[in-house]
Amino acid sequence: MNDTTDKIAASLDLVARQAILDGKGNVQAYELLAREEYSPTEDPFLASAQVLVKVFSIYQLEQLLDGKKAFINFTNSLFDEKTLELFPCERVVPEFTITENPDRDFLGKVQYLKQSGFRIALDRFSGQVWEVALLRWVNYVKIDVNSLDVSEIQKLLKLVRAQKYATRMPLLIATRVETREQADFCFANGFDWSQGYFFMRPQIVSSRHVGNDQRNLFQLLNLLSGDGPIDEIEEGFRHDPTLSFQLLRYLNSAGMRRGREIDSIRQALLVLGRVPLQRWLTLLMFTSQGPRKHSLLAMASSRARLAELLRMESAHLEQAPEALHRSFLVGMLSLIDALFDQPLAELLGELKLHPSVTAALLEREGEDGVLLQLLESIEQGDYQAVQQWAKHAGVPIASVNRLALEAMAWTAALPR
Hints:
disordered N terminus; TIM Barrel; Hypothetical protein af1432; alpha/beta
């Protein structure tokens, strides 16, 4: 980056991205959360927008959003439509938390945004008279289901549905959904989308095991982790024609065959190398689960790349290639329990990993345990925790935001 970019990046403290999913588990949008350690205003939502303006002066919006819309939160007390004009209306959805009866000035600004092509979201809908009056203006209604009981949620849904709309009723989004049970309830009661960490929480079924189609991947990963002979690794691919085809297609893609046509599994294995092959197979575990797991793939991939980047930036963590690969692996495997809906300890028992990897994942121990704590703090938008764990990891706080954005961009560029 140039000097100007360095100064802007250094002034940013934290940007996090949270997925908004439909009932099939597909990512439909993201909410972008950003905070400055210090802001001249007391409104955290306006501060977020100010930070994001600076972010998008460095990074392309498409890189961070993967073609999806971005929800950015404001209040009606401190709302600057000029800030929003800096964002593309087809990508950014301003969402408003209406804490008081809005004045005519605010209503005029919302109408201006609608005429400019923006789609509007109403956040934390609680059924206040002034919120109901705004329903005809908005395209999305967000309801915080974690702070309400079942009867209150159903009452709010009924209230939204009872209004008369010129075109269509706004899409209903459940927010702060923390469990699968909450998500199932929301979709069963008519919510269109859901937002929260429920998709990262496994729905444990005690009798469930890794399927036969995944067993070969586990065995190959064990062979690679334990320095298994090339003959046994090759044999594992021979038993899985689909996997072999995927590997050959991957190696024969532009930039991977290194000037050679790959015409055998053994040659493909030798050209690719053990460490890149292990990373590729780990990614494949997520992609082979189908579109329902795409959100997990995005999160796990971003974690993996960010863990690697954070280690590279650290002033005192080990920098050997093996250590960088281990951090990538820890980041990726940190969501494997959600992928297979099984307890993490059971899955790690089937994957014969290095003890330091298992300790990091189960106990948050060692260097990679510290990095994993830092990753989770970034995702949760917990600035104090980010400061704490960044210090432990020897990563400058000014670098955390830049690296997080780079990891998001890297994930968005992954082939589907």
